[in-house]
Amino acid sequence: MRFALLTGLLLASTIARADTPPANQPPGAGTAQGDLSLTIYTNDLALVQDVRRLDLPSGRARQDFADVSAAIRPETVGLSAPDATVVEQNFDYDLLSPTSLMQKSVGDMITLIRTTPMTGVETRERARVLAVNGGVVLQIGDRIEVLRDDGLPARVVFDRVPETLRARPTLSVMLDSRRAGTRPVTLSYLSNGLAWNADYVALFDEKSGSIDVQGWVTLRNSSGTSFVNAKTILVAGAVGSADDGERGINRRRTIRNAGTETAAHEQLGDFYLYPLAERTTIADKQTKQVSFLDVKGAPATSGYEFRSGWLQSSDQPASAASVLRFSNAAKGGVGDALPAGTVRVYMRDAHGEPQFVGENRIEHTPQGSQLAIRTGDAFDVKVKPTVVERTHVGGDHWRTTMRYTLTNARDRPVTVELIQGGLPWWWTDTRISSESLKSERRDADTSVWQVPVPANGSATVTATFETRF
Question: pTM for the complete prediction?
């Protein structure tokens, strides 16, 4: 049979000698881990600190640390033990599995057991594993056979487990102890495969102009190891790494004005710490959520936003974006620094039932910021930008006249934040020589108009730009 089908056979395999548990694992315990502390960052990185009590002999002896992360970064391992020094360390990550067991048995003898379905009679044959390359090649007596799926129930019995295979990720350390006795040994290392992010559920009440926000920490463990009863601290911020590439800069802008308030959280350098209130177990391949924010009735408003690119002209009107605006200031806001995550926005329908109306991602947001969350495209509010005239006035100077037509099919007036982006900011003399509505120059390449549009009506804004492009 194909080697991929071999797994089904080997799952029923019998190992003649059970693997001996590590000497430092308490009898009956489900893990060899000790007093665990996890510091988890948002960029797939965690600091693991594991304090275990070990009975160390005098002199040199190897100590096995089972149940370390399978995604450990061995070069970051630190070990401290009173009256002992580290001579060398090895990380054994070749884990025991049906496939690895067969691969490591090349050249060894195994027992192949087949059962006849009609009679239930078992046939046992000794075989030598010759090769495992896309299939298993066996020597049985004087014949060479490829292990295949012939419809007969089969299983393989191995005489032993190769020493290089481990049932669990294991760090082996050679210690030189100046005395014998039991003492605490602190193991620390960095690991990939552990990460967290924030998720927010926001219920917006348009009539009262308020918002309820609940924040959830979402923990993910893909490290290959479970962490049992760990004291856990979350760090809001991506710490630097030698593997970092260039970070993206074209992210959707959600922070309208960055805040200047200090949040009431412990800080580590430039990062905020969010300790979980209780110890928790984070199982391998598990996603876990813990609440960290619950705010009721913070002021909020809804509005519309439309961003036009430089020289953008359209034959058809396009939808403005629906925008939810609120603050995370201590007074008049959510009142906390907000770790990066996704904000999912709900509104109540005519029957009072909350309905999902959109979502967007926010970056790490300092307390006191003004946020504008774009939740989707408006059905009834449209904008049509038009290049009315573009004139070359000499040299590298140009004059461009734009017209923006805004329509509102709703039964109440709205205000649209009209943004002209992409202005040629690299020339210092870019300016608006005339406009039908006063604009605000928000930054080097952006001008903004707050355009009131009447109910079931329209509005027009015109502007003339003097540029060197």
Answer: 0.67
